[in-house]
Amino acid sequence: MVNPWNGCLFIRDWSTDRRPPRMNFFTLLPSMITGTDELFELALAGKARNILMINLVIVGLTFGLSNLYGSLLQTPDLPMHGSYALITPLMFWVFGIFTMLGVLLGFTLVYWAAARAFNGPGGLWLVMDLIGLSAVPFWFLAPLLNLALNFNQSDSVPLSLLIPLVIVFGWSFKLVRQSMVVGQGLSEGKATLALGCMWIFSVSAVYVFLP
C-alpha cells in the first residue's frame, strides 16, 4: 500500500514549531531590575526604544509627584480642590516628563563621552537605549534626589532619605555599569572608571548650577 504522505516535504512539524515568546515591558521587568546581559543586547539589536519611552514617562511621573509633594509641604494652599485636583498633578507630571527628557539628553552626552574615552563605540541612539534599559532605579533615584536637594529643610540629609538614596545609587551604578560592559564592550574595570568619571562630572555640574 502506498503511503500518500511520502515525499510531501511541505508538511509542517508542529513539534518543532516554537515561536519565541513575545516580549513586553512586564515580561522584561525582572531583567530590568537585575540588569542581565540579555536585556542590554536588546539595545544592540535596536529593540529597546519602546522601553526607553515607557521608562521616561515613569521617571517623569515619579519626579513630578515628588515636586508636587514638596510643593504641598512648602505651599499648603496650592490649588487642589475641584477640577484642580486633576489639573495640578497633571501639570507637575508633564513638567516632570520634560525635565527628565532634558536630564536624559544630558546624561546621554556624558555617557557617550565616557564610553568613547574608554574606546567604546558610543552611538548616541545606542547610548540612549542602554540608559532606558537601566532606568528602573531612576524611578526612585530622581524623586529621592529631588526631595533631598530641593525640599529638604535641614542642613543635612535625614536618614529616611539618605539610606534609600545610597541603596538606589548603588543599584543604578550596577545597572549602568553592566550596560557599558554589554552595550559598549568595556571591561568591568573600564566601565567602573568610566561611570565614576560620569558621576563626578554630573555631581560637579549639579553643584555649580544649583542656586
Shape descriptor: globular
Low-confidence stretches: 4-21
The helix content is: over 70%
Task: Please trace the helix and strand order, writing H or E for each element.
Answer: HHHHHHHH
Largest sheet: none
How many separate structural domains? Answer: 1
Rg is 23 Å
Distance between the termini: 92 Å
- Percentage of β-strand residues: under 5%
Mean pLDDT: 86
Specify the structural class. Answer: mainly alpha
Keywords:
single chain; 211 residues; mainly alpha; 8 helices; 0% strand
Structure description:
- This protein is mainly alpha-helical and about 210 residues long.
- It has one domain (about 40-210).
- Helices cover about 70% and strands about 0% of the residues.
- It contains eight helices and no strands.
- The protein has helices at about 25-35, 35-45, 50-75, 85-115, 125-135, 140-150, 160-185, 190-210.
- α3 (about 50-75) runs parallel beside α6 (about 140-150), α5 crosses α7 and α6 (about 140-150) crosses α7.
- The longest helix has about 35 residues, at about 85-115.
- The N and C termini lie far apart (about 90 Å).
- About 30% of the residues are buried.
- Mean pLDDT is about 85; it is low at about 5-20.
Give a nutshell description of this structure:
With 211 residues, the chain is mainly α.
Q: How do the helices and strands line up, and which of them pair or pack?
A:
Layout: H1 25-34, H2 37-44, H3 49-74, H4 84-117, H5 124-133, H6 138-150, H7 159-183, H8 188-209
